[in-house]
Design a protein that fits this description.
By secondary structure, the protein is of the alpha+beta class. The protein is 34% helix and 21% strand.
């Protein structure tokens, strides 16, 4: 599986997202390659359908996508059991990894 972390330049949540990915991968045992892409312009954001930083793509798809979310060079928030956060919930990322790995 390919995991791509999309971020804006100097994203304040980059390290939290990278740590979350590492923990979820270690917990699930899913074999992955991880890459990081900086989205620096409005044009890049439009081309990628980027709805905020950080965005985690699993095999090119955003498991946390919200219908109608605007393309934006901004921070992104995620709905978690503990309210809105700037990274997804670990449990939700683990479930997404398992779901994508299972096909």
């Amino acid at each position: 599986m390919k995991i791509e972390l999309l971020i804006v330049p100097d994203c304040p949540h980059e390290s939290a997202a990278a740590a979350l990915i590492s923990t979820a991968v270690a917990d699930t045992g899913v074999k992955v390659t991880v890459s990081e892409t900086v989205i620096a312009t409005d044009e890049e954001a439009r081309q990628r359908g980027f709805t905020g930083s950080p965005t985690i793509l699993l095999n090119g798809s955003d498991p946390f996508a919200k219908s109608g979310a605007p393309v934006a060079l901004s921070c992104r928030s995620y709905t978690t059991p503990n309210g809105l956060r700037f990274v997804p919930d670990l449990r939700d990322l683990r479930q997404a990894l398992k779901r994508v790995a299972a096909g």
